[in-house]
Amino acid sequence: MLLRRPPPITPEPGPNAKKIVSWNLLRRTGAAVDCLVTLIEQERPDLLLMQEATKEIAALKDRVGGVYAWAQLPGRIHGLAMWSPIPWAKPPEIVTLPPGVLIDRVCQVLDWGEFGVANVHLSHGQVLNRRQLRRIESHLPVRAAVLGDYNIVGPALLPGFRDVGPRRPTHAMVDVLPLRLDRCLVRGLVCHERMVLPRGLSDHHPIVVRLSPAPEGAASVGRLRGMAEAVGRLRRANVRGARARRDRPGSDGSAASPR
């Protein structure tokens, strides 16, 4: 009889748990300040991360208070933004990422005390966006979360990190193909809650997670486990590819054809 390992028990969120909302606003034609005010009033996040935010979104601070930081993408009208009701010890760091063919990308990294948070809008290239993740990881503390629009299809393959975000699609390509582009990867953290919110005026759904630091020692264990899982996924992909090649008619190891 096959014995299944019981799922891990997630502890109840303590006073250090933080609620984070991430939303790709859809520059200019999507969600505006009024939408963000409504979102903040309904969800009461400890941190709001935004992608495709234009300079007009800075008016959010005048409407709801708190602190706001904007990182414009080079040569673009939009960029990344963060808002919090409580001031940060220091403003987010802007990290330059490996550039794409058309758009140069940056990332916001916030030192939030007990853990770091990276706000991302990665490139569409499926090799490039994973290279960008590895650049971001080098700027993060042991306990960290990476949230935003990944533009990734399939696993992110970031060693040491676990994908704890919602599993539902967050974007529909040309309103037809549902994709889970908006994600949350963590290292050394526990996720107590995750959900997808209504899309509103944007072409992306906001995602919500509630995170807290994992117990001492779990961060390093999680990093090793994440690396092992990534290696395992790559090995399984290689095995499937080898089987497909072997079973292809006329390939070595395939059934002999009648002569």
Automatic annotation (TrEMBL):
A single MF term (Gene Ontology): endonuclease activity
Stretches assigned to the Endonuclease/exonuclease/phosphatase domain: 21-204
Protein origin, superkingdom: Bacteria
InterPro entries the UniProt entry points to: Endo/exonu/phosph_ase_sf (IPR036691), Endo/exonuclease/phosphatase (IPR005135)
Annotated region (Disordered), positions in chain: 238-259
Keywords from the UniProt entry: Endonuclease, Hydrolase, Nuclease
Keyword Transmembrane helix found: no
Pfam families attached to this UniProt entry: Exo_endo_phos
Keyword Hydrolase: yes
Name of this chain's protein: Endonuclease/exonuclease/phosphatase (EEP) superfamily protein YafD
